[in-house]
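Limitations
The structure tokens in this dataset are predictions for the assembled complex, not deposited experimental models. Users should treat interface geometry with appropriate caution, especially where small molecules or nucleic acid strands are included. An illustrative entry is reproduced here so readers can see what is and is not provided.
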Amino acid sequence: MDKLNNPEYYYNRELSWLLFNERILGEARDRTNPLFERLKFLSITASNLDEFFMIRVASIRDMVNAGYSRPDIAGLTPVKQLQELTSAIHKQVELQYSTLNKVLLPRLSEAGIRLILQHEDLTDKQKKYVDDYFMSEVYPVLTPMAVDSSRPFPLIRNKALNIGALLSKKSGARGLVQTAEKRKKTNKDSYEFVTVQVPGGLPRIIMLPYEKDEETQSIILLEEIIERNIGKLFLNYNIVCAYPFRVMRNADLSIDEDEAADLLKEIEKQLKQRQWGDVIRLEVADDIDEKMLKLLKEEFDCSEEELYRIQGPLDLTFLMKLYGLPGHEDLKCAPFIPQIVENLTPERDIFAEIRKEDILLHHPYQTFQPVVDFIRQAASDPGVLAIKQTLYRVSGNSPIIQALARAAENGKQVTVLVELKARFDEENNIVWAKMLEKAGCHVIYGIVGLKTHCKITLVVRREEEGIRRYVHLGTGNYNDQTAKLYTDLGLLTCADTIGEDATAVFNMLSGYSEPLSWHRLVMAPLWLKDRFLFLINRERDNALQGRKAKITAKFNSLVDQDIIRALYEASQAGVSIDLIVRGICCLRAGIPGVSETITVRSIVGMFLEHSRIYYFENAGSPEIYLSSADWMPRNLERRVELLFPIDSVPLQKRIIHILDVMLRDNVKAQVMQSDGTYKRPDKRGKEAVGCQQCFCEESVSTSKRRKVEAMRLFIPEMHEDE
Amino acid sequence: MAKLFAAIDVGSYEVGMKIMEMSRKEGMKEIDYIRHRIELGTDTYNTGKISLERADELCETLLRFKAIMEEYRVDDYKAYGTSAIRETENKLIVLEQIKLRTGLDVEILSNSEQRFLHYKAVASKSEIFSRIMDKVSLLLDVGGGSIQLSLFENNALVTTQNIRLGILRIRDSMSDFASRSTVYEELLLELIDNQLDSFKRLYLDDGKKKIESIVIIDDYVSHVIQRYNKNQLVMAEELMRFVDIARTKSDEYITRLVGLTEESASLLIPSIVLLESVFLMTGATSLWAPGVSLADGIAYEYAMEHRFVTAGHDFENDALECSKRMAERYQSNIPRNELVERVAVDIFRCTRKLHGMGKRELLLLRIAAILNDCGRFVTLDGAAEASYGIIMASEIIGLSHAERLIVASIVRYNKVDFEYYTEMVKRTLIERPDYLRLVKLCAIFRLADGLCRSFRVKIQGIRAALKDQNLILTVDTDENISLERRFFRRKSDFFTEVFSVEVTIKQNKRNIAI
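Predicted assembly:
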């Protein structure tokens, strides 16, 4: 048994995450993707990396600082992890910029868009334009800050782009500060350092007017315009040099909930503090002046490893803005319109439809509208007594929030569990939590110490035959905007067993005792891990006894060691295991004698793969579950999550089909090799299958077929007197 | 449309509320069960009072319950407090606070009422109930303050005893040992065994009477059994295996094993040891844990009252059986008492128009007849007072405290001069409506007792006719009843005073012996 603890059988989670980001970068490098989509993928890798720094790298840095030296499951100590990560990240950043400079920018230029990287390259006309732009739009909002003995180094905001400059005094002019002048007398070579933040409120991309007879649209970045005009901020000085820089700080938000009397206030307080953590990455332009670099490194207490010399514009997230520029539709994928689901149009009685049969929704192929309608109809339905919902990340101006508020105004009992701790989303959450409270909803903030990650809505309705409960359970957030981009599954049901369990879930979330027993739902952190282990072990035992045994699971990350061990044991017993893991995967596939029967593939496509599906063969009577949880310790041990079964046979068939198509994907899937790297499957002689494309087509054709069927219906014309 | 009913139970360590849907067609269906842990009992049993903080928490919880009731738009509710509230010195203040802050009326249940509701909750699971109660079985009802042991034979309740061995009480009284002693469980076992010993001697024929099954009502062992065993039945060996595990492993391990919170573990262990003792005492072979709670009983009673369900079990018979066993134990004159009972029932039925009382009062009258001379076991002089004392000190399952007081008072005032309300209330705190019931029942009972004055008389039947404010009782007997007539006159004065009718006795000799 202990053999399975061998670190060689596991992959470090951070390095595995980097591989995932590399797969996204692969999409940016994939020639078959339209150019603007490639820019978007590159932008995503950059924002992903920012978040990764703030949370994960910061966390490992903390461990190193604290002298923590326990190795992870892959046998790496924090020091070693940091070393390997740093070197891998440096490589990835290089790849990001070579992709940009060598591949994407030339293509962009071919497509008629020229990004002017250096303001020196501007034409005279363009120079005049940007200088005017600077004076009218930019200058008024800039706050230059000087550094000298009387003014300490200013606090540089996390993630913000800044321009640093070294100044020398013009002869005869007075210095910024007297003390500085005095100092200069003693040291002729010394310069003054100033810094100015590139305002986040202004557009980063500025379109330049067309040159005569030219069809190319030139664009320039805001920081270049500021750099060019920085002299206007310090009139009595010569600008020796000016370069952009950016810092990333430790932003791991850990709240001691036991001590926080009021969770809400505590998070508000923490938010203000977040920007001032330790600097863990300093990004500077590759050609930065060495004097300035020295100064920055000293100020930010930054080592050589933490320094990133960037060969191009800092902070590539501007590419997302570029993607959003109007026009150039030929360089983007045609936007997919989520399809309307039969019988679930807004004017239909959704409760009647749910009573007929369970409904499975597959987003974004199918529209999220039925979920919004479910709550909207409940809000105005006279029979509805109560609506209870968990909200994790919702969109701004969310129709769900509006419907909940209206339900409360209509006298329904509305209970909303708001998870304040959704990463980087706290500020947003607090705003609408307060709004819901104002509308008369009962807002609860979950169980102390546990993030509520499950997605569940319960509508209690008093009907002729008695109380009936309608439940929506999902794998993704109640966010109508991300539902257009994330692939998720949702179930609408009024099964008594699930209704009773849903009631119990909300009772527990409201702080009441757990129920004496559960019918169908399995909840983390109390029972979910045990249940998964049980389900995996049952397959193992079935395989040992010669029965049919198979596991197919699709989720976002696999980190939990107990689960991985159980999977290895099942594999050793001969269970065929196919895993579709979008992101981190600490399990290694194909190790002889350990994981030979396990395959791991990752799908990175236009939509973010987000659904979690778990299929267990169970000796020929398959059990299929959906969940909000990944196989990560944080999901299984530190969060409130739900696992729910799909019992209806037609719905089971649909899910089996979904899994099957995903396993056949040879366009967007990459398969883990025994050395831990990922490769695209060999397409030779095989039909090209892209699962997302396939699901899009399927949903459109189903929808069309239904429209045609509806048109074929003969509706006799009625006269008024009939 | 189905009705929604909320049953609230303010218990010793938990406040719970069940929302039940009731309809004639579907019977009862549980919609929601909300529980909040609050150890009111810890305050009451240790200090005699519920502290300000706990009272405040209780009000907050009930206020939230009320919001849930409004959410479901419940049609009716019943809220009951049990031993923690019952035994607290400041109960009226606490109840008033609850009323003022939440608008909820919480009534206090006497122990016997509470146990009776538990018992009804078990009976609501009619199928297994009748199968188990058919044999010799023991119902172990574990509360925070005390336990209740009820013995069943042939589908009827034989006896029921309350023992102050509640798990909260055990845990708190042993808390000094828990942290220090490695033999905590053994000490617990010893403590419990000592207390169970008297029950064994008195009711189990010192262990000779064999019990087949134990039925348990509690919040911990039942939870464990329900979790692992959907049909709720466990054999003794299986149970003992679990007991062995529980005794050797840490609290933390056990709670993880059975899926309870750690704070519950401190109460699970005393529950297990208690159950083990009861098994050792009875030699039972199986355990049934129906997993019901007081709230189920409250709901079941309400459903029966409002005819949403019909009882599959005769609960009144339990009270009668229980009284008969008591009468046997106190060596009553059973043939005479049976005669008094029969005559009293006849008079009650014949004079229904006069007194307007129902089934429940008839039951009280019958129990009074069965127990009317139990005090003679103690003393012949002043037997009425002694009977009163015995009845008041005994558990008669199914009777409320107020009803028990009526029964005891019927027996008492049959012999001693009746007291008017202002006098009586000084010694018994009897409520006005109960006093009026007592007056009428006592008047009837006196008539019946008077008619059976001579122990040898055989009355075969009795008929009553009301004519012009005159009640004519025609007694079918061939024997000389002149002694009865004399006593009867004295006894009928009270009846006349109560109902404003004269009573005349007529003899109908059907088989005149020559």
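Some entries come with short summary sentences. For this one: The longest helix of chain B spans residues 52-72.
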